[in-house]
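Consider the tokenized backbone below.
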């Protein structure tokens, strides 16, 4: 921040202003003149706008009066034309009403003639239809009677067929019961035979197993004795195998014979 002397500053500014060239003063004068011109132009423009507004209002009033006058003339002409068109329309409507009345009278005459013709045709067709319906009713009664007789015949035939089927079913049932009893008896006999055969086979197998156990025991004792004496053991083993093979063949042969 700086502190300056006020009087010295004002004097310095005055010297600077005095040192400006004259063109700055002229510029200041021109600026002032420009502002005066602007004020004058603004006031003149406002006066022109006010005058134009007044002139426009006057023209509007004149246009309104002229429009009202011309509107009244147009309305008067339109009313006259309307009255003339209404007269013409009334006359045309009257002529059309006369023509429609004539046409209506002719249509009523034609309708009356057509109505009488249709009534006659209706009576004739009704009689024909009644005759046709009576014939159809008689035919329907005859057909119904025929159907009832056929129904009775078919019912009797169906009853006979049902009775025959019932008798056949009863006979078939008796045959079936007898056949089932026979099959049951045969199955019981077969089961008893199978039980006996199974017991025999089991007894034979038990005997053969005991024989094999005896042979094996003998061979084992012989093998132990030979081993204790220092003899060779191969031939006894071969003999044991041959003995077992022969025993198995004998068992198989006996089983095949029993099966046969």
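A designed sequence for it:
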């Amino acid at each position: 921040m700086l502190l300056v002397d006020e009087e010295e500053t004002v004097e310095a500014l005055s010297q600077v202003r005095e040192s400006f060239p004259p063109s700055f003063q002229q510029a200041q004068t021109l600026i002032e003149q420009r502002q005066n011109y602007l004020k004058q132009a603004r006031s003149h423009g406002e006066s022109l706008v006010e005058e134009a507004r007044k002139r426009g209002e006057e023209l509007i009033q004149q246009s309104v009066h002229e429009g009202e006058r011309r509107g009244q003339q147009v309305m008067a002409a339109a009313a006259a034309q309307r009255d003339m068109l209404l007269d013409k329309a009334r006359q045309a409507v009257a002529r059309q009403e006369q023509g429609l009345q004539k046409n209506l009278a002719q249509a009523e005459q034609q309708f009356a003639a057509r109505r009488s013709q249709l009534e006659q045709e209706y009576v004739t067709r009704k009689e024909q239809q009644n005759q046709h319906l009576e014939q159809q009713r008689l035919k329907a009664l005859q057909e119904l009677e025929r159907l009832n007789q056929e129904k009775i015949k078919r019912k009797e035939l169906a009853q006979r067929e049902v009775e025959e089927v019932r008798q056949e079913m009863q006979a078939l049932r008796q045959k079936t019961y007898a056949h089932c009893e026979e099959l049951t008896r045969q199955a019981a006999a077969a089961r008893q035979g199978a039980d006996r055969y199974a017991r025999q086979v089991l007894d034979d197998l038990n005997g053969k197993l005991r024989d094999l156990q005896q042979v094996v025991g003998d061979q084992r004792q012989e093998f132990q004795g030979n081993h204790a004496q220092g003899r060779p053991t191969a031939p006894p083993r071969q003999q044991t195998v041959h003995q077992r093979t022969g025993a198995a063949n004998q068992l198989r042969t006996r089983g095949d014979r029993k099966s046969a």
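The longest helix spans residues 22-229.
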